[in-house]
Specification:
single chain; 186 residues; six-stranded antiparallel beta sheet; elongated
């Protein structure tokens, strides 16, 4: 039951349950009853699994979320409030899907450099394209530069070092990479 502040202090029961308004689902299963039961058992919070979604009861509208339910307890450890923290990830999922579709039709492989681990994190399609084992989708800087043709390595290493130092360079660099079968690709 929903509690509503009473004008003379305290709460009174309101005849509306959260499940009358929405469902919090994963894999077509409503998670809300289980989450609420865990909070009543004095679990402090409950995280939602990836790909969870809210489904509104009155319209069947559905959107993906990431989030957590947090229980607020009084001194006697009685559940008094439930806070639902979430963010709508529908737009982010849509953007990733559209970008993924576009990239799957090209030879563009997004990457970033993890300075803390001196590793490049590269789209796994890059490894497949070159016929290399993908592993965890990362490659150390030294291993990457071993794949670069010796004639191109110095120029590319200089450009890479400047980029990492914060010197933005708008120039395009072409270079050859050794494929898994030993051939070179520009």
């Amino acid at each position: 039951m929903r509690r509503t502040p009473h004008p003379r202090g305290g709460d009174f029961a309101h005849p509306l349950n959260i499940s009358d308004i929405l469902s919090v689902c994963h894999d077509r299963q409503d998670l809300l009853p289980g989450i609420l039961a865990r909070l009543r058992e004095r679990h402090r919070y409950g995280d939602l699994p990836p790909w969870s979604y809210i489904r509104l009861q009155d319209s069947n509208l559905k959107f993906y979320i990431e989030g957590r339910f947090v229980g607020r307890y009084d001194r006697r450890r009685q559940l008094r409030r439930i806070v639902f923290l979430f963010r709508n990830t529908e737009e982010e999922i849509t953007r990733k899907f559209i970008l993924g579709m576009a990239l799957s039709q090209t030879k563009i492989f997004p990457w970033f450099f993890d300075l803390g681990h001196n590793r490049m994190v590269i789209d796994e399609r890059w490894f497949a394209h070159l016929g290399l084992p993908a592993g965890d989708g990362t490659i150390g800087a030294e291993d990457f530069f071993r794949l670069v043709h010796p004639e191109d390595r110095g120029r590319l290493a200089d450009a890479f070092a400047k980029q990492l130092a914060g010197e933005l360079n708008p120039d395009t660099f072409t270079y050859r990479l050794r494929r898994g079968d030993g051939t070179w690709e520009w």
